[in-house]
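Q: what sequence does this backbone want?
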C-alpha cells in the first residue's frame, strides 16, 4: 500500500460516533450536570478520532468503552445500566461488522466481543428479579 491512510474503518456505521458520547458520559459521570459536560468532551474526542485518528486509535477507544461497560455490568461501579447496555450493543454491532473489512480488526476484537456479549446478557437481566428484559 502507498503512504495513504486506510480509511475503510470509518465506513462501517455511524452509530458509534453518534451514540457513544452520551452513553460513555453517562458511564463516567457521577452527577447529571457532570454528564452534560462529559458528553461534550466525549463528542470532541470521538470527532478527533474520526477526523484525525487511525483504525488502531479507534479500536483502542472502543476497547476503553468495553472496559467501562464490563465494569458496569459486573457491578463494580454505580452505573447507568441503560447507558451501559446501549454502549455495549453499539460497540458489539461495530465489532461484528469488522469481519467485512481487510486487516486484523475482527480478530483483534475477539475478546472484546466475548466480553460484550456476556455484559449484554447480564445488563438485560433485571437485577431485582433475575428475569431477562
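A:
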Amino acid at each position: 500500500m502507498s503512504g495513504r491512510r486506510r480509511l475503510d474503518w470509518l465506513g462501517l456505521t455511524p452509530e458509534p460516533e453518534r451514540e457513544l458520547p452520551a452513553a460513555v458520559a453517562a458511564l463516567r459521570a457521577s452527577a447529571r450536570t457532570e454528564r452534560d459536560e462529559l458528553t461534550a468532551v466525549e463528542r470532541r474526542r470521538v470527532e478527533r478520532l474520526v477526523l484525525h485518528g487511525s483504525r488502531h486509535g479507534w479500536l483502542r477507544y472502543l476497547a476503553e468503552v468495553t472496559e467501562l461497560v464490563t465494569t458496569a455490568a459486573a457491578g463494580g461501579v454505580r452505573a447507568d445500566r441503560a447507558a451501559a447496555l446501549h454502549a455495549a450493543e453499539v460497540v458489539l454491532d461495530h465489532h461484528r461488522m469488522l469481519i467485512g473489512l481487510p486487516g486484523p480488526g475482527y480478530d483483534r476484537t475477539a475478546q472484546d466481543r466475548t466480553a460484550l456479549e456476556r455484559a449484554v446478557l447480564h445488563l438485560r437481566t433485571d437485577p431485582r428479579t433475575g428475569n431477562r428484559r
